[in-house]
Specification:
Oligomer: single chain
Largest sheet: 13 strands, antiparallel
Radius of gyration: 23 Å
Low-confidence stretches: 4-53
Bound molecules: glutamic acid
Number of helices: 19
Distance between the termini: 41 Å
Number of strands: 20
Strand content: 15-25%
Shape: globular
Helix content: 25-40%
């Protein structure tokens, strides 16, 4: 197994071979969320040349209440496969891996085995929260100037679609590590449902068609990608069925031989070949830089088990993902700042003013201080200390917005004075991030809970499918700063083996030591504010979880304007000096709340990204 501390021999390969090929989770699935796919004609090779026969897109149910376990994802097939695992006796970790593998099929532009992610688990057996860092790593040959040519940063749009931006995928190793550590299923069994979806196909919905359309130009520039996602040269029609037999074969390869097939086996060589010589279509004029990845980089990959971040908030314990993600530190710092006031007692404008300012201050600190802890000294304890939060909270003026960007604070253990507030230095700029990614949350009847955010970075990753293997590669290394924006202090420059800073924020909230809430979202840096705002909505502003998720969002990230969805109440904030910019939607949360009497409330988006899919094992009000 590929973890730095959880050594596991290759026995897993023999064990996988020894398994019977009998009924597996996902075979003969009982009716559940998303089971409305028409059974007939799922061969995907229909005469229209645009993805095959037609089906009805599975129904999407954004809210479910009941017992026996729960799953919330963006996709009905993934939720159905996760629920099926729970019904058959699997636990929340098994269900999370099975659902994630299905997202690799039906949400392939957001996540898959070509990418990475972060998984946070409440382990009921030990009563503890633990995490896995499955972030992609830079190749050993990657120096701090890897994205600079002739003294100038290469254009981001060229970096996005390149071999250069591909990090070593962490997702397959994360699945194996999660199953080995907390699961009950073999990788083979956990992949069975997803393999079946890849084989039989999924019904193309509007979101998938729109994402394909948005990527059509660059997909067309790679022979392998065009063959899979532009069948017959066109964007698959809504309602058509898209099969991915190559991915089904790849999953079977992993099932038989373990994830070493990808890190040291045949897939490793194929990934390296694809990165070093991308399959550019004849006649394409796109500039596609090759990458630096070598087989040794894949062979060296390790999932890192990490202590979670922890802050207490209104008497609850909020656990998140530690660096190299900035999710846990930034959500945690903002909560600490907010805890200095009683948000629930403030009027709406003042409550949101504090939300906006706390997020901006925490982002200033994130940009200055957070990077891969194997390479930079991240002052995590201080960033999450009450003393530092008090020093930062002191800057918030109830009568006026702080001029943006605000400068980072100095988390050095010495805080104050508070009158006047301690000044900061120069603001650190935020590097741009994509808006892809996906999040899923699972819970089981034994009390285990998983919050798992995974990604291939951009929607569509780097746009390059590994030929014959059915999955896209990530472009995660574009999450590095391309040049030093902080006068020698940038914690997020590329480096050999380094993990780029992330914003992924899978979060689990405990009350009296037991899970109360688990949530997360996609959306690049907006992930942090989506998680923060949802927590504030639920814990401070009295909204039930489904309303907390559905409420209009704003994403204050210490810029000169705040992106906000239509419906976010701006007028009072504008009167305080906040400046807003319109954005149609932010994030796509998936959350679970543990209710009384063994019940769960599973919540997905009602509208964003076309709506998500929540389900429970036994519906019960
Ligand atoms: N690369 C982003 C991160 O790690 C996630 C991709 C996205 O959501 O845009 O934060």
């Amino acid at each position: 197994m590929r973890t730095s501390t959880l050594a596991r021999p290759l026995v897993v390969v023999a064990a996988a071979f020894a398994l019977s090929a009998g009924a597996l989770p996902g075979d003969a699935a009982p009716p559940g969320v998303g089971d409305e796919i028409d059974g007939a004609g799922l061969d995907g090779s229909g005469p229209d040349g645009r993805g095959g026969h037609h089906g009805r897109p599975p129904a999407k149910v954004p809210v479910a209440v009941g017992t026996g376990g729960a799953v919330a994802t963006v996709d009905p097939d993934a939720t159905r496969v996760g629920l099926d695992v729970l019904r058959r006796g699997g636990n929340a970790v098994d269900a999370a891996v099975a659902a994630a593998a299905t997202l690799g099929v039906a949400e392939p532009y957001s996540a898959g085995i070509g990418g990475g992610g972060f998984l946070v688990v409440y382990d009921a057996a030990t009563g503890s929260v633990q995490t896995l860092d499955g972030r992609e790593t830079a190749p050993a040959a990657m120096g701090s100037d890897a994205f600079v040519e002739d003294g100038v940063a290469i254009p981001p749009e060229e970096a996005v679609t390149s071999g250069l931006s591909v990090g070593v995928p962490g997702t397959p190793a994360t699945w194996q590590a999660a199953l080995d550590t907390w699961g009950t299923l073999s990788l083979r069994d956990a992949l069975a449902g997803a393999t079946r979806v890849a084989e039989r196909g999924f019904v193309v919905d509007r979101t998938f068609a729109e994402q394909t359309e948005a990527n059509a130009d660059r997909f067309a520039d790679f022979t392998s990608t065009a063959a899979l996602y532009l069948p017959g040269g066109s964007v698959p029609r809504v309602g058509s069925v898209l099969r991915n037999p190559d991915l089904a074969r790849t999953y079977r390869l992993l099932a038989r031989h373990g994830v070493d097939a990808l890190y040291t086996g045949p897939l490793a060589r194929e990934i390296v070949d694809t990165v070093q010589a991308p399959p550019v279509a004849p006649g394409s004029t796109r500039v596609v830089r090759p990458g630096l990845l070598q087989p040794a980089d894949l062979a060296a990959y390790e999932v890192v088990p990490r202590d979670p971040t922890l802050v207490t908030y209104r008497g609850l314990d909020v656990y998140g993902m530690a660096p190299p993600s900035s999710g846990g530190s930034t959500v945690g710092e903002a909560l600490n700042i907010l805890e200095t006031v009683d948000l629930g007692a403030l009027d709406e404008t003042q409550a949101l003013h504090h939300y906006v300012e706390a997020a901006a201050l925490a982002f200033a600190d994130r940009n200055r201080w957070v990077g891969d802890p194997a390479f930079v000294d991240v002052p995590l304890d201080e960033l999450l200390s009450d003393g530092f939060a008090a020093e930062r909270a002191c800057l918030i003026d109830p009568a006026a917005a702080l001029p943006k960007p605000v400068a980072p604070g100095v988390p050095d253990g010495t805080y104050g004075p508070y009158e006047p507030c301690a000044p900061g230095g120069d603001a650190a700029t935020e590097t741009p991030e994509g808006t892809s990614t996906t999040h899923l949350t699972t819970a089981d009847r034994w009390g285990n809970v998983v919050a798992y955010t995974l990604t291939i970075e951009s929607t569509g990753g780097n746009g390059i499918v590994v030929p014959g293997r059915g999955f896209l590669l990530n472009n995660e290394l574009t999450d590095f700063s391309f040049t030093d924006t902080q006068g020698g202090a940038d914690p997020n420059l590329p480096g050999p083996g380094k993990r780029p800073r992330s914003s992924m924020a899978p979060t689990i909230v405990l009350q009296d030591g037991r899970p109360l809430l688990a949530l997360g979202s996609p959306g690049g840096a907006t992930i942090i504010t989506t998680v923060l705002q949802t927590l504030v909505n639920r814990l401070d502003l009295g909204m039930p979880l489904d309303q907390a998720v559905a409420a209009p969002r704003a994403t204050p990230r210490n810029g000169t304007s705040i992106q906000a969805e239509p419906g976010f109440p701006r007028a009072g904030l504008e009167a305080l000096g906040h400046v807003f910019a319109d954005t149609p939607e932010i994030g796509a949360a998936a959350a679970i709340e543990v209710l009384d009497r063994g019940r769960f409330l599973a919540v997905a988006e009602p509208e964003r990204r076309g709506g998500g899919s929540a389900g429970v094992v036994r519906p019960r009000r």
